[in-house]
Specification:
There is one protein chain. It contains four helices and 17 strands. With about 280 residues, the chain is of the alpha+beta class. A hairpin with a 3-residue loop joins strand 10 and strand 11.
């Protein structure tokens, strides 16, 4: 699909290798076709998804002192996703850098974002260079749709599995060892059981406050990290009494921390600005 000839500035960020193109207050409508063209890694700019965000003038979520935005996320395949934890964190950095430029200052930015999964809040602060730290509220965890039955088809038998709803659907399967698990092969087979798609995660608990995670994302495929998946895995592990309230989730792209001590789940980790692209 050809890149559309529109005058839009995109910024590219990644959270632990999970990368996004972000359009802040674009003057043209952007959607599925733009995402498919721009996110293609061979003929486009390359990304796991396209985030389109617009500033909101009326405060939402009860925090009048924050920046208020609305967000729509388009996966690389052109499908609309409810939310992404890493995408949300990348958006937080993009908004904050847009406000102050790339110069680091000892300041925390509070941002409220209206997503398809509901209202989420962000705290963003500079750390080093173009990598900042972002803490995102991810809402409460809940039980998702039915668990998968086709593990024998891929020659596996999870020790436990839970379906989790974080505004988007996740299937979390626990194994004593992730060696030999090819998530690129397993993911699409397990996801095919669910008519509306499914994020599929294979997890190994490594301690009361740590776990390893490999990711198959609905609408994208294998990714280096998944923020909402990390939250879903931690929530599922806690529900099964396998981990405590604060969990370091290590994915191929790096680690993020999930805090389950309150009503909402909180995800904290780095976001890195890659650069800007002008389409037009």
């Amino acid at each position: 699909m050809a890149i559309a000839a529109v005058n839009v500035e995109l910024v590219k960020h990644h959270g632990l290798g999970n990368d996004f193109l972000i359009a802040l207050d674009p003057e043209v409508e952007l959607g599925a076709e733009s995402a498919q063209a721009w996110c293609d890694r061979h003929t486009g700019f390359g990304a796991d998804g396209l985030l389109v965000a617009h500033r909101v003038t009326d405060p939402i979520g009860g925090n009048a002192g924050a920046d208020h935005w609305s967000m729509v996320l388009w996966n690389a395949d052109g499908g609309r996703a409810e939310i992404s934890g890493n995408g949300l964190r990348c958006l937080g950095q993009a908004i904050s850098m847009h406000r102050m430029g790339s110069e680091n200052k000892a300041e925390v930015f509070d941002i409220v974002v209206n997503t398809d999964a509901g209202i989420r809040s962000l705290a963003v602060w500079p750390v080093e260079g173009l990598t900042w730290q972002v803490k995102a509220s991810m809402g409460p965890g809940g039980s998702g749709p039915a668990i998968a039955t086709g593990w024998s088809e891929v020659g596996l038998a999870p020790d436990h599995q839970l379906a989790v709803d974080l505004g988007n659907p996740h299937l979390v399967a626990f194994f004593s060892d992730l060696d030999g698990i090819d998530i690129a092969e397993i993911g699409p087979i397990i996801e095919a059981e669910f008519s509306t798609g499914m994020n599929v995660h294979c997890v190994r608990v490594t301690g009361p406050g740590s776990m390893d995670l490999v990711v198959w994302e609905r609408g994208v495929g294998v990714t280096q990290a998944c923020g909402s998946g990390a939250c879903a895995a931690a929530w599922a592990g806690h529900r099964l009494d396998l981990v405590g309230n604060e969990i370091a989730v290590t994915m191929p792209g790096g680690s993020a921390t999930v805090d389950l001590s309150g009503d909402d789940i909180y995800l904290t980790g780095p976001s890195t600005c890659i650069g800007k692209v002008l389409v037009g």
